[in-house]
Design a protein that fits this description.
The chain is 41% helix and 16% strand. It is built from ten helices and eleven strands. A hairpin with a 5-residue loop joins strand 9 and strand 10. Helix 1 runs parallel beside helix 10 and helix 6 packs across helix 7. Bound molecules: NADPH dihydro-nicotinamide-adenine-dinucleotide phosphate.
Length: 295
């Protein structure tokens, strides 16, 4: 049997960012509006610092304004909330992202709920969560949205397909399941209490792995020809002391069984930032009541 096709998230996301940059130019030239994204980072978590730097770079490249707010790790919760209120009222800011995780003394849910839902480009506010679940005009979490774009690009219509989402986090698993329901897939959500996970995964035409366990999904769990979206990002140590990024799927095994699969890195990862820019553009257009073609 031939090897699975690779789903190239680098290529797809760079095209998406070009499309977004074209729309941003259009907004600026025809409406004198420049989308602005504010990113709030509290503390010095090295991984978060890297993400924030990349977001800043990509935002500028897309022609948007980027506002970075870096606060010390011991910033009291009320100061973070005050900053959010200020950003909610700033007309130059159309999207607000608070980099998670926040330090333990800050209630993340309270901070998320303080963000104006119209500027909630991460799609974590209960209003957006509810709108996604009830079929309304939501801002949708970036990683599941990017995963769905890759799936639709590969498979076209998804209606009627069996999809298994492994993982039920608010950030990935649950919104992913909602998006697949919206596409008329038959959706199963698996988690740490699921019985016979390999048997459940084997039924799927579409497998979304969002577990956070390196290479957990094995090749012999997969239905031949299925499409695998590996959301996992795990840094593992090699026997020689080196480090390597791997997904939640055993790629070497899965590539021999699946019809198509996202690599790690270079699959879902780059889609997340591209969708953050997409959400910022959409939020900006909505706030200014300007029409925007679906992207
Ligand atoms: P969480 O830790 O929040 O959720 C993990 C989910 O996996 C939980 O629902 C958990 O079940 C389930 N799970 C854990 N162990 C098992 C098991 N043995 N069998 C079945 N299910 C299990 O992780 P996230 O959703 O935030 O992230 C998932 C992965 O995606 C991580 O590797 C993360 O790094 C990556 N990620 C990648 C992004 C990207 O841009 N590509 C963005 C966000 C995340 P239960 O609920 O029962 O505990």
């Amino acid at each position: 049997m031939s090897e699975a096709k690779l789903i190239d998230g680098n290529l797809f996301s760079s095209r998406l960012r070009e499309t977004i940059a074209d729309h941003v130019r259009g907004l600026r030239d025809h409406h004198h509006v420049v989308p602005g994204l504010a990113v709030v980072l509290v503390g010095e978590d090295p991984a978060s610092q890297v993400y924030v730097r990349t977001k800043h770079k990509r935002t500028i490249e897309a022609g948007m304004r980027s506002f970075e707010h870096t606060l010390p790790a011991d910033t009291p919760e009320h100061e973070v909330l005050t900053l959010i209120h200020g950003l909610n009222n700033d007309p130059e800011v159309h999207g607000i992202l608070v980099q998670l995780p926040l330090p333990k003394h800050i209630d993340s849910q309270k901070v998320i709920e303080a963000i104006d839902p119209a500027k909630d480009v991460d799609g974590f506010h209960p209003i957006n969560v509810g709108r996604l679940a009830s079929g309304g005009d939501a801002l949708v979490p970036c990683t599941p949205l990017g995963s769905l774009m890759l799936l639709k690009d590969r498979l076209g219509k998804l209606a009627g397909l069996d999809a298994v989402v492994v993982g039920r986090s608010n950030i990935v698993g649950k919104p992913m399941a909602q998006l697949l329901i919206r596409e008329s897939c038959t959706v199963t959500v698996a988690h740490s209490q699921t019985r016979d996970l390999p048997g459940v995964v084997r039924r799927a035409d579409i497998v979304i792995a969002a577990v956070g366990k390196p290479e957990m999904v094995r090749g012999d769990w997969l239905k031949p020809g299925c499409t695998v979206i590996d959301v996992g990002i795990n840094r593992i140590e090699l026997p020689d002391g080196g480090k390597k990024l791997v997904g939640d799927v055993n790629f070497a095994e899965a590539v021999k069984v699946a019809g198509a699969i996202t690599p790690v890195p270079g699959g879902v990862g780059p889609m997340t930032i591209a969708c953050l820019l997409r959400n910022t553009l959409v939020a900006c257009a909505r706030q200014h009541r300007l029409p925007l073609k679906d992207i």
